[in-house]
Design a protein that fits this description.
49% of the residues lie in helices and 15% in strands. It is an alpha/beta fold and 334 residues long. It has one domain: Alpha-Beta Barrel (TIM Barrel). Strands 1-2-3-4-5-6-7-8 form an eight-stranded parallel beta sheet, with helices on both faces. The longest helix has 19 residues. The relative contact order is 0.13. The protein binds zinc ion. Zinc ion binds next to strand 1.
């Protein structure tokens, strides 16, 4: 079995319910239900009251509670380590990129350098104790204003961490379309940060994928299924070799069939796809399970193809990618 790579993984979405219970108690964050019951609510439909916040509200509400419970460098170090520990033992990962949302924690009073110090500690411990490597992606919360996003990128640039290698654009797509964040992404690009964005997930158009690539300078796309609405944009991305970091399993079971069909169609259209777990502690899945689904929906390609795409899409330099390739496939294929 090949070692796997997870490039589309949200730090709050990796937090175990037991860890949430302990961190919430430590920081006196009131949970409306015991943590394990909250987690099972994620997979139910929103109540009428909740629908005003969007169809994904139960998930985003749990995200808020997890984020509110992550305050200190020790908290960040713990959840980063546990994310990679679960990734290793559940799925055999050897490398992951974890997205975190600085503005959410900055607004709650945590200094950015506390977050990065914790992430660095958690990654260092995972390298040493688990033999699993990782990096972090500072993700813009698309509900933020353009100014808050620019400030966040400035903070990332002014406080460089060897482990924070790029920026992302996360959460409910219709709450902030990509063009709003052009300046923030441009600034990130000028300072050598890698760039990715969630696009073509909730907005029923392929244009958000195109804008993320052309205006935001994204090297890869998280999700991207709606690209299928435009054969021209599909052809352009196939030519560019853009890699789409997809995940099959969501909090909403109704979406699962549609996503599987979309990923199969993307691969048939000549697009490059990598398989990821997105929020494995919150959804009933693991990266290994997602890979199994990928083999079912796309029998024309094999696991090696998906892993090769992950290596190519990773926010690592050529030397580090060669090391990763050698580790996974052995020196003869390096
Ligand atoms: Zn995601």
């Amino acid at each position: 079995m090949l070692s796997l790579i997870d490039l589309h993984l949200h730090l709050p979405g990796t937090v175990r319910s037991q860890t949430l219970a302990e961190l919430a108690a430590k920081h006196e964050v009131a949970l409306p239900l015991p943590a394990d019951e909250l987690y099972s609510r994620i997979n139910s439909d929103p109540t009428d009251d909740e629908k005003g916040r969007g169809p994904w509200f139960p998930l985003l509400r749990v995200y808020e509670l997890i984020s509110a419970s992550l305050r200190t460098r020790d908290d960040f170090a713990r959840v980063v380590f546990e994310a990679l520990e679960d990734g290793k033992y559940d799925s055999g990962i050897c490398y992951a990129e974890l997205a975190f949302s600085p503005s959410v924690h900055i607004q709650a009073g945590t200094a950015y350098t506390e977050m990065t110090a914790g992430i660095e500690l958690g990654l260092a411990r995972a390298r040493q104790e688990l033999g699993v490597d990782g990096r972090a992606i500072a993700a813009i919360n698309r509900e933020d204003s353009a100014e808050v996003a620019v400030d966040m990128v400035k903070t990332v640039v002014e406080n460089p961490s060897p482990d924070v290698v790029g920026i992302g654009l996360d959460f409910y797509e219709l709450a902030g379309l990509p063009e709003k964040f052009a300046e923030a992404f441009q600034l990130a690009g000028e300072h050598g940060l890698h760039r990715t964005a969630h696009a073509g997930e909730h907005a029923p158009t392929a244009s958000t994928v195109q804008i993320a690539i052309e205006k935001l300078g994204c090297e890869r796309i998280d999700h991207g299924y709606q690209i299928l609405r435009s054969p021209e944009i599909v052809a352009r991305c196939a030519e560019l070799g853009t890699i789409f970091n997809v995940a099959f399993t969501t909090s909403r079971r109704a979406l699962i069939g549609w996503r599987r069909e979309s990923v199969a169609a993307m691969i048939e259209s000549g697009l490059r796809v990598s398989i990821n777990s997105d929020d494995p502690a919150l959804f009933p899945t693991t990266l290994r399970r997602e890979m199994g689904i990928a083999r079912e929906v796309a029998p024309s390609v094999n696991e090696t193809w998906f892993v090769e795409n992950s290596i190519d899409a990773a926010f690592l330099d050529g030397f580090e990618k060669a090391k990763l390739r050698e580790r996974i496939f052995g020196s003869s294929n390096a």
